[in-house]
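so im writing up the methods section and need the Spore germination protein record in one place, dumping it here so i stop losing it
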Amino acid sequence: MIKNNDKISSNQVAILLFTTMVGAGILSLPADVSKEVGPNGLLAILGGGLASLFFARLILWISSKFPTETFSEYASKLVTKPVAVVLSIVLIFYLSVFVSLDVRIFGEVLKIYLLPSTPIETIIITMLFASAYLVRYGLEPIARMSEILFPIMVIPLLLLFLPALSDVDLTNFLPFMRVSLMKFLKGVFVTTYSFVGFELLYMVFPYVIDQEKLKKSVNASIISTTLFYMYICFFVIGIFGYKETKEQLWPFLTLIKSINFPVFFIENVEGIVMAIWTFTIFTSIYSFHYFAVLVLSKLIKAREHSYLVLPLIPPMYLMALIPDSIVTLYKYANLVSQYLSIFFISFLPIILAFFVKLKGLGDKK
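--- predicted struct ---
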């Protein structure tokens, strides 16, 4: 049975998806696309957004066939219970890995820019317990938190880049499409990590009050995320050029530091941006954390998810400490996005949709 504090609206789903997707990936996205497609990064992001929209709608369609069930429950009807159990375990691991990657990236950034003397272990465990505190209270408080943080995340970042508009050199986006099709598709592929998050649609459908409006919500969240990424990359690549952008680890933060603001307007821009980004990464962490716990609770048929929140923290913490450097950390992130993300985002929805059609299961409406 779904409790009242787990019921959310379709508008809250749209905001939850946006705040989950716009997380750690925003830091390295301009560099990632610049490495693969050079000055055509904006088109690669647009392609990634359209692909994400297609698969998000496909996952939503599958979930709509089982409006009262989550992934662990309806997958057993489609691909047999043993396979569904294995898929659920892998999904728990997948979501937990993203929590670990995000808290480690958060720790590395904070240690470099704000807290150089603080042990990274302390930063990681503090963020995990902050996430756990919110996750214990259920989906509706999480959605409300995302509603509160959404304008704090988006509006300042949109405004902060405007003083740099005069520094954008449009020739940095030339030559246009002088790249092979395979290279361009690989560029679309590398944007996957930045769009990770809409897989939450596997689980969220039964918790939505106005399910008939979810299509518009999913469209709005994916399209707004795509436009937001294109906005950021327009300034980063337009100012630095793709050759300089691809050599940087976090070009997004580098650009913020290079923008000259009027003295009377603001003084410590870097500190404010780090505070905003902390909210951004926090929204991703608690979303992945909650849905990892939710899948686990459905898998073992637990009556309360709150008892499972703390037991997942130790493995998440230990996984966050496995990479011995930032370079290794991003290698692990690339491996996860290349295999697990692609599986859950594209291959699995196609397989499940095939079985829905083959078996004729689900709601006929």
